[in-house]
Structures are given as C-alpha cells and as structure tokens.
C-alpha cells in the first residue's frame, strides 16, 4: 500500500474515530459471520452465525451461574452449599453453627438420626491429651505382629491424593495441616515427594505403577522400597492400592508433557515420556500372591501393610478372608473406598456406575471377615464422602476404626468445587500444576486451615459421642443410629444392615494415648 494512501486512511481514522470504529467492528463481524456460516463443525454457529456463539459462552459460565445464583443450598453435588459452608467456617475457625433449625427432610428415606442419651457423658470429665481438646486416638494398634506397630493419633486422616494430581502447594498445605492436627497423610499412588515431608505421619500408597518403589525396568523393587522407608521415618504404614471407588479397574496416564524432571525423579520414571499406571498389578494376580506380596513388604520394612479397594465382586473378599484364616497372614488394615469417592479424572460411567457405594460395600466385606472371626484383628478404614460428623458416626457404628477424607480436606484449603480437576485449570490452585494458579495456595495459611478443619471435625465427633453417653466415638454402635424408611418409619442401622459390629473393648480414653514410635 502506498504511503500517501496509508496516511490518508490514518488521517481519516483520526478525524472520524467513531465512524472508523463502527466500520472496523462491522468488518470484524462480517469476517466472523462468513467463518460461522461456512464452517461445518458447530451446528448452532452454522445455523445462527455470530449470535450462536453466545450459547457456548453461557455454557462455559453455566456452572458458576448455577453455583452462586441459581442452585438451592441443598441441591449441588457432590457437596452442597451448606456442607461446603460448614467446612469453610470450621477451617477458618469461624462460627460453624446454623440458625433457625434444620432445613433437612427428616422423613426422607435413608436419612440418619443419632439417638442421644438422657444422661450424656459429662464433658467436664473428658480427658484432654497434651492440651489438645480434639484428640481422638484410634482404639486399635495397627500391625501388632509387625516390627513397627502404629497407633494413629487421630481417627480422622487425609486420604490418598498424589503430587501430580494436586499441586505442590496443596500437598504442603495438607501435610502441614495433618502435622498440626496429629493426623496421618496418605501419599496417593504418585509416590513420596519432598512436599509430603512437612512433619506429618505418612502412609505410602503403592499402586499398579509402583512409583517411587521401582527399578530402572519399571518393576517393583523391595530394595528400593526398603531404602526409601529407611530414609524417611515419617512413613508409618504402606497401603497397596487395588482400586479406588471412582474408577476401579481403570488405569491412568500422566501425559509426557507433564512428566518433568521433578515428577520423573519422584516416580522413578523417564522424563518427557508418558507415565502409565496399568489397570492391574504385575506383582500378583490372585489372592495367595497378594498375601505373599503383603508379607514380603511387611517383613522387609517392618511396617504395617494394608490394602485399599472399592467393592465389586464379593468372591475376592470371600477368598481373602478364607486365606487369611488359614494362613494367619494378610493385611493389617483394609481401606474400603465407596463408589461415591472422588478422583482427579474418571470416565463418567466409572464415576457413576462402577463399584458399590460405601455403606453397601463396607457391610458386605465387614460381615465376611466377621464370620471368619477376623474383623477384630483388622483395622478398618472408611472413605468416600465421610468428611462430616454425622457420616463419620454412621461409618464408625458400622465398624470403621478410622475415617479418611480427601475432597473435604481440599475444600478446607480453598477448593471451590469448580470440578475442573481433570483440566489442569483448577481456579483455586489446588488440583493443578499451573504455576500461576498454584500461587493462590499459601502452604502456611492453608495448612493452618486444614488443621482447624480436622480438629473441628474431631471436636464435633467428641461432642456427639458425649451426647450419646460415650467418651470416645469408637463406642458408637448400630443401635445408636436410626435410618428413615419413609414417613413415620424408622429402623436401627443395626437392624437395617443385618449385623452388629464387634464390641469395642473400651476402658477410658487416656489408656489409648500411648503411641509406638518408629525411629530412623
């Protein structure tokens, strides 16, 4: 274009700024119109050029509109606004009470009622351990036959969430929260990172990829595992992950672009290559081999070893109970993950329809082991939307000794339930590796909030126990809970599920505050 002509155009734009802006806008819209009407990918844009784009914009911001302006306090899933508000207030040390009475429909089928006693346990008599008014130790010692048995200080602990799925600041915040509240922190199958080493007790989870415990060929290595355990006395237990509630029997892949030098070092994989978690273990293919694998790790490390699994077919559990009865070997603890449990990413069908929900799955497994006389020697851990006092009480009354929480702990450090965990664009900076988004999570501040959530959770559990005449929540039974069966019909949890949990041999809370120590 000639310079004089360009000068004339620029002069005209300067002289008539409004007209030139309108002409520019019309040209832009004309280009968009032509592009929309000729493309064949998007039907709405092809049929309604330009204005059809508004539909995609509204669809993009739809979740936010519903969450903040449209949805009722009790409508959202997986956690409604009332539940999230309780966690946020508890984590911040604010008033977590609600006014004016319940908004629940108490005759709705499945609704639980905790039956209080006419003469509660006097709170003035409650034992306070080391000035911690929220201390609730586990009533069982895990791995009594191992070299390094372990009694958790807290019955509420942080469930498996890997570094990689969560950002480094989120992992550090959760670990500091666990440290300050006395809870343990599960690594997730991604292995033990430096971000997990903020002072909390750790449970090292080993999945199908054997990350952090594998040799150069990718096979499980007991020597590597023993070396890592020896270097890290914070590791108190090892959990073999068979499956999780949100996607059992489904493997995973961390794309090559996300496998940086740090991830590669932690997981013992090659940098810049896809990191694959198979859908099944290569070290064992049946129950006998699983038990042998458990014993090999326990004998090699001296640590309690357990399994985590969702519940599907019952034959596996029948065979496991039978083999444990015959051999007197097997897992020291069993974590049952309900189908309602969380995940960073899962196919919709898996998340919605594969594996039984917690109450059904736990009942089936627990009663099998109970029939073999094994349930008392195993420590039972429940997970899957149990991060609220009422749900925890029900799980304990069913037979759980410990409760693991994951998404609820994420909420305590700032998660807003945007449900973008699988996109790496978590706006709260929790479930992302994006450096800019992660900076929103301050490990020091958020760590204190995670601790307050766990402590507040435990305080309310203690309060409920006292209201029901108990000193420790582990004393709850199925007779203490009634479940609505519809209008004017309630049934005890024990009667509904058809079994009675093992009787708790409880003396007084102070007797359970001796914690075996594993030294380096």
TrEMBL record:
An annotated Gene Ontology molecular function: glutamate synthase activity
Signal peptide annotation: none
GO biological process: one example: glutamate biosynthetic process
Transmembrane segments: 15-34
InterPro entries reported for this sequence: Aldolase_TIM (IPR013785), GltB (IPR024188), Glu_synthdom (IPR002932)
CDD domains tied to this protein: GltS_FMN (cd02808)
Pfam families: Glu_synthase
Glutamate synthase domain boundaries: 155-470
Keyword field: Membrane, Transmembrane, Transmembrane helix
Family: Belongs to the glutamate synthase family.
Protein name: Glutamate synthase domain protein
Gene source species: Leptospira vanthielii serovar Holland str. Waz Holland = ATCC 700522
